[in-house]
Amino acid sequence: HLLPGPGGDMQWCFSQVKGAIDDDVAEADIISTVEFNQTGELLATGDKGGRNKNQPQFRSEYNVYSTFQSHEPEFDYLKSLEIEEKINKIRWLPQKNAAHFLLSTNDKTIKLWKISERDKRPDGYNLKEDDGRYKDPNSITSLRVPVLIPMDLMVEASPRRVFANAHTYHINSISVNSDNETYLSADDLRINLWHLEITDRSFNIVDIKPANMEDLTEVITAAEFHPLQCNTFVYSSSKGTIRLCDMRNAALCDKHSKLFEEPEDPSNRSFFSEIISSISDVKFSHNGRYMMTRDYLSVKIWDLNMETRPVETYQVHEYLRSKLCSLYENDCIFDKFECCWNGDDSVVMTGSYNNFFRMFDRGQHRDVTLEASRENSKPLQVLKPRKVCAGGKRKKDEISVDSLDFNKKILHTAWHPQDNIIAVATTNNLYIFQDKVN
Amino acid sequence: MPLLGKTWSAMDAVYTDLEGTSAEDVGICPLREPTGGGVGVAARARMESSLDAQNLISISLRKIQSSRTQRGGIKLHKNLLVTYVLRSARQLYVSGNLSQTPPQTPRPREDATAGLSGSLTELAHDLYNFPGLESDTWQHQQQQQAPEEQQAPPGADSELTVPGVLWWDSNTQSNQKTVLDLDTHVVTTVTAGHFLPDCCAHGRGGKKRRTDASEPVGEPSDFGSVPRKRPRTEEGCEHLDGTDVSHLMSVLGSSGLSEFVSWQQTDLEQIRTVQSISLRHSGLTYGSWTRAIEAF
Description:
The complex is a heterodimer.
Chain A: E1 3-5, E2 8-10, E3 12-18, E4 31-36, E5 42-47, E6 51-58, E7 61-62, E8 66-69, E9 74-76, E10 81-83, E11 89-92, E12 100-105, E13 110-123, E14 147-163, E15 173-176, E16 182-186, E17 190-195, E18 198-207, E19 220-225, E20 232-237, E21 242-246, E22 258-260, H1 273-277, E23 281-284, E24 290-294, E25 298-303, E26 312-315, H2 324-329, E27 339-341, E28 347-351, E29 356-361, E30 366-371, E31 387-389, E32 398-400, E33 412-415, E34 421-425, E35 430-435
Parallel strand pairs in A: 31-32
Antiparallel strand pairs in A: 1-2, 3-35, 4-5, 5-6, 6-7, 6-8, 9-10, 11-12, 12-13, 13-14, 15-16, 16-17, 17-18, 19-20, 20-21, 21-22, 23-24, 24-25, 25-26, 27-28, 28-29, 29-30, 33-34, 34-35
Chain B: H1 4-19, H2 39-67, H3 76-98, H4 111-114, H5 120-127, E1 165-168, E2 176-181, E3 186-191, H6 245-252, H7 258-265, H8 268-276, H9 283-294
Antiparallel strand pairs in B: 1-2, 2-3
Helix pairs in contact in B: 2-3, 5-9
């Protein structure tokens, strides 16, 4: 059950866990997004309370670096709607100077935050006292040059841009372009292109809203820029299709360049076929040759050159296929799982229920199920692979489908861009695991 | 949220027969062929799957209703998916009922060909399909039948007091109407009836009951109206669950689907579109969507 990796087998060990221990979870503490920056040095989480937490890495440990309130609840008086402060997505900008920048979005508004360190302060002003009060000019008898002296590290987060009023529907994705100047934001029906410096307007590049809302059959569920080609982006739909668009073709990219769709297997048809085929996440591979999609029961890898079907399909929790009715009733069927690639695109990861998460090694055709739990949280404790028993005789150490806790779901996971370090978010805890060899 | 285990056992009674133990189970099964000899077995299978369809319809409607009160406004994606389920369940239910009774009218155009577009407004369109749109007066139809009786005397004119009832039918030409009674959560099908909504969204001067079919209006009205509570009719139907209607009504309050509709309304493009589209497609749907919930 070991996942082979470069330099031998991978063994995942517990590293850290962040968050409250008790089971009574405050709604505001529910983690809603997790993202490493491009170097892996920083790990950001967003929660339902609108807060961002950033953790820098130090000796393979992540400690809280800064916590700030990114969004506040708002009220749209025109529509009598409350706008949640929940952070839907965070995306880091590539670092250009000492400060770090990230984009953080709730349902309606995207904000660009600057996170900077301050570890020196000026001392010895001529005109001001140490506490900031101005001196009586008559009392100044000499001049000196102020100096910078060390101080305790202070991390400041300040909003640099607010991109508002561009989305009628709920924003589900943001994606920074490889040109480092623009980014896209997607809601249920539209995708807008922004320039990072310009907040008072955006450019609509996709609009799938029908002239008559009666004719609405699908919505946009996720969108992402190609990691290398600044003119290319993809968006996924609730019908299980992915469209690749080239911004050079036309100003409005309603007409796709490629349409990726796998025909439905008629033997699997049920009342819930539409729901489980809805794509909840789409991610390009780092090398830009593949993209991965997540629907309710599976992960699919697509070659960008082949639109007719995915090149690989991995079943995440096929044992749930016979439970779809219950999962519909308790709303679990609407859970939006994310997925992620490892640094060299050889392994993909996604979450499941009962605080399980799954990794699929593409090269070795092996997969493993691991669990994020407090019980397995001793320092450097190696994670034991888990197994779900779908039916028949349950073996020792297996867990039966009916015993799974559907309140414990892992929707958000992130993989360090270079190393074998992963961040896995349960409802309100963030677990960090790393490869023992690491 | 209940653990799946608990939910599962509660659902056992309803779903055991259909779920089976096969690994190929896909949840609710479509209408199956009779497995044994005799009409009795066939009828039972159909009845069970009708019950499942009823259950799914009821669950789906409750989801739509509760999404209205969620923070952050109505989630378009989720509601779209729910309408897909709703339409499939309704189709199954209607086809199950139709196969039990000899068809009265030429078989209505099959919804399957119309497709499961699943749009919210189309659902609303079906919920309130006004066959007599051109007629000047609406009529009540007394619902006297128990679920087993599918025949309504054609042209019956008697007053109908049907509290908390949603109506929809499979198409405009059909004389069949499928009814969800929100008191009992029983879905029944009635033939040859006319229907009057509790409140006509497009009534003139804000009249709420038995208004004349009016010109299409661009905007729904009556958001603030509270439906007059009508005396309950005798229902010999079994309760599928114990949801309290008065609880539903208090949850809904008086504003109906105001967030949803006002959200739609204040989308400027939508307003322009609304004003140029006929009652059947636009004003009807907004109004009827509001009515659908107010009828709770």
